[in-house]
Amino acid sequence: DSGVTQTPKHLITATGQRVTLRCSPRSGDLSVYWYQQSLDQGLQFLIQYYNGEERAKGNILERFSAQQFPDLHSELNLSSLELGDSALYFCASSGISGGSTYNEQFFGPGTRLTVL
Amino acid sequence: DQQVKQNSPSLSVQEGRISILNCDYTNSMFDYFLWYKKYPAEGPTFLISISSIKDKNEDGRFTVFLNKSAKHLSLHIVPSQPGDSAVYFCAARYGGSQGNLIFGKGTKLSVKP
Fold first, then answer.
1. How distant is the Cα of A45 from the closest Cα of chain B, in angstroms?
2. Nearest-angstrom CA–CA distance, B9 and A57
3. What mean pLDDT do residues A36-42 have?
């Protein structure tokens, strides 16, 4: 158990809809990262937040947005969903907790999104 | 353009033998490299890492080698066990201690009893 939690585990929705994925980082971790894994693809970095502020953006579509709240949990909002958005979405966190440094990111179990 | 490449989508090894997973990268600014292991329906699990200033890091059965001149790293698993069967992702970091990871597409390792 990495200590990172994600909800929901599975999400099935229709094209054009909007969904919100939630992530709680490990206790004390300030950085949260979102990744997308499509079929036969590696993990694509979407966006990073550090202590409530957006720190870096990767290949994130304009239809997608995220935020990190004062309690450090994060939400990824996906809107105007398309069939191609079906993927696994992972959240990861990093920080200084449990003796680790910022070098490693610890991943949650993911949310599987299916757009029909 | 893929900055981190794992050219072997799959690898099959006999139990007890060595597994060698390879990874190539193109960006000389990467300062840290990591290997993650992923089982189906689970998130990636951190396995082992290496700083760009080192050429080897060992942790039990797992050793990572880094050849900066060749922009190549490898993960050695000795001896391989059936429980090692999983997808292994190589990742490279840029941007310092809070930087971001670029992942390869993964290599599926099958260890046969």
1. 7
2. 28
3. 82
Determine whether B50 is exposed, middle or buried from the number of CB atoms within 10 Å of its CB (0-12, 13-18, 19+): buried
* Nearest-CB residue to B89 (from A42, A55, A106): A42
Per-residue pLDDT reduced to its tens digit, B3-43:
999 999 999 999 999 999 999 999 999 999 999 999 988 89
Q: Which residues of A touch B8 (CB under 8 A)?
A: none
Q: Which amino acid is present at B47? A: L
Please report the DSSP string for chain A in residue order.
Answer: --S-EEE-SEEEE-TT--EEEEEEPPTT--EEEEEEE-TT--EEEEEEEETTEEEEE-S--TTEEEEE-TTS-EEEEE-S--GGG-EEEEEEEESS-TT--TT--EE---EEEEE-
Structure confidence at residue A28 as a pLDDT band (50, 70, 90): confident
Name the residue facing A104 among B49, B103, B104 (closest C-beta).
Answer: B49
What is the per-residue DSSP string for B53-106?
T-SEEEETTEEEEEETTTTEEEEEESS--GGG-EEEEEEEEESGGG-EEEE---
Chain A hits for B45, CB-CB cut-off 8 Å, are 2, 107
Are residues A2 and B45, on separate chains, in Cβ contact within 8 Å? yes
Q: State how beta strands B32-38 and B45-51 pair.
A: antiparallel
Both tokens assigned to B43: 């998130």
Report chain B residues whose CB lies below 8 A from the CB of A4: 43
